[in-house]
């Protein structure tokens, strides 16, 4: 017999699968399938995560229904399918809305929060009433009181609810200038265009244009108007748009 002993290599044994292990794996697979199916059902078919209530917060000038319509939200939509940024962008297409944000405030509730442009002054235009923001945004209003300011707007301005920059600038300049003058208590001002601005004061009809000429003639105009004989007939109009102040008398 050879002295060199043969070393038997230990054979590797493969995993032993018992009936118990197979049963556990089948149960685990079934549970996993059940969880996945339930998750899919809850998010895509269950009414628990669908939109049922839509609330609007922060609006003063625009009705809730108008904002909800612009958002394109409607009851029955799936929460998981909503794009909040897109919804906010839809709401912000309204020119009166400065910004909008969307929040899921409950399992079935969406809240739309908006910030509107604030009117700082009011005026009439062709029978319509508007509030005017610092940015020139036109806010349709129903005024219960009389308004002294009337501004002629183009159809496009009314459609876009935005006053043209040159008209906005001229209107603000004139209103600020009149506040500092003796004519601050005017009856009415009609801004037709940049060079045809009618000021009505105590029966006088004054045609304005460039502020530079108004400032130049302000002392003469004040003397003429405030020293005018109250018993006398008023002139047809006073024109202060040019180098010389012109008084058009009635014939």
Give an overview in words.
It is built from six helices and twelve strands. It is an alpha/beta fold. It has two domains: 47-116, Roll (Ubiquitin-like (UB roll)), CATH 3.10.20.310; 121-248, Rossmann fold (3-Layer(aba) Sandwich), CATH 3.40.50. Helix 2 (64-71) crosses helix 3.
SSE layout and pairing:
Layout: H1 19-44, E1 53-57, H2 64-71, H3 84-91, E2 97-106, E3 109-116, E4 121-125, E5 128-132, E6 138-141, E7 149-151, H4 155-160, H5 165-180, E8 188-193, E9 196-201, E10 204-208, H6 211-226, E11 237-239, E12 246-248
The low-pLDDT segments are 3-8
Q: Compute the gyration radius: what is it? A: 38 Å
Give the biggest beta sheet: 6 strands, mixed
Helical percent range? 25-40%
**CATH T-level topology of the largest domain:** Rossmann fold
How far apart are the termini? 154 Å
Number of strands: 12
Top CATH class of the largest domain:
Alpha Beta
How would you sum up the global shape? rod-shaped
Mean pLDDT, as a whole number?
A: 86
Query: Helical region count?
Result: 6
Number of discrete domains: 2
Structural class given helices, strands, pairing?
alpha/beta
Query: What is the CATH architecture term of the largest domain?
Result: 3-Layer(aba) Sandwich
């Amino acid at each position: 017999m050879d002295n060199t002993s043969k070393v038997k290599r230990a054979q590797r044994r493969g995993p032993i699968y018992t009936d118990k292990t197979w049963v556990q794996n089948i149960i685990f697979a079934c549970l996993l399938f059940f969880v996945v199916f339930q998750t899919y059902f809850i998010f895509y078919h269950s009414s628990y995560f669908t939109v049922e209530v839509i609330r609007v917060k922060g609006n003063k000038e625009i009705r809730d229904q108008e904002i909800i319509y612009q958002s394109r939200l409607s009851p029955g939509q799936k929460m998981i399918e909503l794009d909040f940024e897109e919804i906010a962008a839809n709401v912000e297409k309204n020119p009166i809305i400065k910004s909008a944000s969307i929040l899921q405030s409950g399992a079935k509730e969406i809240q739309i929060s908006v910030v509107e442009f604030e009117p700082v002054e009011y005026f009439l235009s062709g029978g319509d009433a508007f509030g005017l923001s610092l940015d020139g945004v036109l806010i349709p209003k129903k005024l219960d009181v009389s308004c002294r300011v009337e501004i002629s707007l183009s159809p496009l301005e009314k459609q876009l609810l935005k006053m043209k920059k040159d008209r906005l600038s001229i209107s603000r300049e004139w209103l600020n200038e009149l506040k500092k003058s003796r004519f601050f208590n005017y009856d009415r001002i009609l801004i037709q265009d940049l060079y045809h601005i009618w000021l009505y004061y105590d029966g006088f009809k004054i045609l304005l244009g460039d502020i530079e000429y108004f400032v130049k003639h302000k002392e003469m105009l004040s003397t003429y108007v405030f020293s005018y004989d109250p018993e006398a007939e008023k002139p047809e109009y006073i024109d202060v748009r040019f180098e010389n102040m012109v008084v058009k008398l009635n014939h």
